[in-house]
Amino acid sequence: MQADKFRIVLLDTKYRNPNHYICIALGSAFERNPDVEFVRKADPLDALSVAHEHRCNLFVAFDGEELDAILCERLSTLCGRSVLWVTEDPYEIDVNVRHSKLFDLVFTNDSASVDNYGPKGRHLPLAGATEFHDHAVIPVDKPLRYELFFAGTAWPNRTAFVRSVLRDIPPNWRFKLALPTNEHLPPRDVDMPESMLSWRTSPVDFGRFVNHSAATVVLPRKFSASGTRDFAETPPPRLFEAALAGGAQLVHGSLAEVAHSFAPEQEILFFDTEREFIEKAAALVNDRPYRNRIAQAARERAFRDHTYDRRVATILDHSRLLTPAKPVEWRAGSEPAAAGASGSKTRKTLLFVCHNMVERGNFGGVEVYLDRMRTALREEFDVLFYVPGERGHHHEAHLLSHDYTVLKSVKFREGYSPVLMASAEREQAFYSILVDYQIDLVHFHHFIGHVPSLVYVAKGLGVPTAITAHDFLPLCNEFNLISFNGRFCGAPKVSLAQCDTCLLEKHSIPPGSQATRRNFWNGVLGATDVLVFNTAGTRDILSDVYPAVREHRGLKIVPVPIHDDVPRRTASGRPAGEIPTVRASQPTQADSTKSAGPATQVEQGRQGGRPILKVAILGNLTPEKGGDVLLHAFAGLADAPVEFHVFGRVNLGYEELTDTARYPNITLHGSYSADDIPEALSECEVSVHASIWPETYCLTLSEAWQQGIVPIVTDIGALGERVSHGVNGLKVRVQSEGDLIDAIRLLAEDRHLLAKLKANITSGLYETLTAHVEALNAVYSPLLRSLPAQSTQHEPPKRLPVLKDYGIVLQSNAWTHQTVGRTRIPRWRPAGPRGGRAVRVYQFYKERGPVQTFKLFVKHGKRILWRR
């Protein structure tokens, strides 16, 4: 990198800018300039990363009235020198002056507006773009297509002029007239068909129309929708563009400054009245050599003085006089944190976006993991949480401190729905949080309760992001990939037609919606800096579906950790996990917790001296965790020398397990803290993990291994991936009760096999907290480029950006092919497996509320209560 060369990031600050072609031409001109080593015309989403990666030393912002003040301030701070070129003065002078405080120099297209910017103001007219407008003058021996040509917005003064001259134009003249309008303008009242007036032309076609017309008309604009000065004497860009295109121009006399750019009567022609216009236009039409002399002289002058190469040279000459800032450390340690934010800025601020937390209850492995991380990462980060409202509160979100204290609450007009991809009010709220609390890094752990478009908001602010795939929500609305038939759908080896069938049957979501959802998610996954997977298998499933994952340069495999603690010892001093031999004369603590009852088959087995195999069921007992399969296994092993110990929450639909007469071999220990493993677990020798969906890691498997317990797992997802059959555990087919019963019987009877499997369990099979924190810091470290805090030297933005400001336009915020309000989630289906009816009623109540649930019972009550 040469010290005297410019490295430029160029940004068009206006969404859907009709003058974007000028920015393109500007970028090409920078590329051709010998003093420029690097230039990139960036998008709002990647401008900061481009500036950082390429160490840009000049930020050039094109157009100003709609710019994102925070983004531009960060780019100005990072690059050390900044230039704004505004093109809508004087019509947008107020907002442009307000934004000018962010920049070192301001170039304005309007000479009369320069003084408004003080010492940093410069006059710089627009120009012609050789990329779009370069056309040689058509020789006199070749006919032209039109006598007159005009294209421009239907400002009132222009429509008045058109009305006044139409009656005097010779009837044999062919003319091309474009007067497109907008919602701010009065009616045109031009006696011509709408189709002849309301059309727009591309920059290239504009040049062609000029080139093939005898006379091109240049009229001023006298109108402002912003309540500011409504007239600019500085010529518009089309004056220079038409000159490059080999056209002869008739310019209204009010644009007196045109004489500074082109010689009157030699390179352009002025007119003041309608009669003078008709006379001079007739001269150009009737005297072709005269017309060509005017056109050729203007074209030569434009090439000499009025191309964007010339304008770029001017910008660089003035920028070179600026004193470049020192290499930026965007946040000094002395800088105070935002009001209400925790800690000072001597440390980085890490924001976890998640769906729940342990304090709310009804939690799983993700919440346990994040609860550990908030403490484990405190030495390096101020950890904050961004969570949706509690269950049923779909219109709010909360920013929490590391100890779950509410720092900020946000209310939304539109409630959250899982079919939402984007939401302007949620994007703007997230934008404010990232800025006000000076977030350095966002790690998305779950999108339930959040719109995935939040990833784009962070990227647009230059805030690095990571996404951890704790489940398959990025792949499907059914994040555990359980199909409408209650089984794993087979992803990724499943067609979109099958996905459509499942979503239609399960949620009444119309066909085609899955393709829309995946298209959006592909962009989201590609926009994040790092994609974290717990296992390679999860990565492979998503990469098989998403090109963005296959092509991503930031894929990481980081397993979920458990505590570093070694397995505890029981009160008797026996190492946890050591195989006990339990006989009838040796009751255990777990036995004493069971209700008294008649002699059972298990007790008879003890009386015969057969050892009792204690089997742990770890985690919440749900259908997705194989609850229905386990019920069959419990019944099938009622007469075997086996005891089942259930550690975790038992969900609705499995209350029958409390019936000791039906399930004499089961002990329910209830929920437990992951930081305080029950002592009874250490007495278990085998654990069962019967999930019917491809889990992405499974913390309970790690907990079992850490206790020296031999696992039996279903051969699916991370369970099948992590366990080696016959080496450190056993694998059975998914939803195969017989396979599970056989595997448990085998270990109950073959103690040598059990000992062999146990001997192969080592600490290398699972991740621990210390190693995980090191791995996570290695992931975060390359992302933690410092970000500039918001300055207090300018007013806050009048309007915060939304998704479309980043160039991402959606037909609908919902991925379903119908409105969110009409999507029925869930649809009632009375039939189902054991326990499924009660679960569905409960889920229906949570989603639809008491009124709709009452209507459900009115309509389907008999089938709900009595159907077997």
Describe this structure in words.
- By secondary structure, the protein is α/β, with parallel strands linked by helices.
- It folds into five domains: 6-125, Rossmann fold, CATH 3.40.50; 130-306, Glycogen Phosphorylase B (Rossmann fold); 348-473 and 514-559, Rossmann fold, CATH 3.40.50; 600-765, Rossmann fold; 828-868, no CATH class.
- It is built from 29 helices and 27 strands.
- It has an eight-stranded mixed sheet.
- α1 (20-32) crosses α13 (308-320) and α2 (47-53) runs parallel beside α3.
- The relative contact order is 0.08.
- The model is unreliable at 329-344, 569-607, 819-835 and 862-868 (pLDDT under 50).
Number of helices: 29
Query: How many separate domains make up the residues?
Result: 5
- Overall structural class, as computed from helix and strand content, comes to alpha/beta
Radius of gyration: 36 Å
Mean pLDDT comes to 84
CATH architecture call of the largest domain = 3-Layer(aba) Sandwich
Q: How is the biggest beta sheet arranged?
A: 8 strands, mixed
Strand order of the largest sheet: 15-14-13-12-16-17-18-19
Give the low-confidence spans: 329-344, 569-607, 819-835, 862-868
Q: Which CATH class of the largest domain?
A: Alpha Beta
What is the CATH homology-level superfamily of the largest domain?
Glycogen Phosphorylase B
Distance between the termini: 77 Å
CATH topology of the largest domain: Rossmann fold
User: Could you estimate the helical fraction of the residues in percent?
Assistant: 25-40%
Oligomer: single chain
Total beta-strand segments: 27
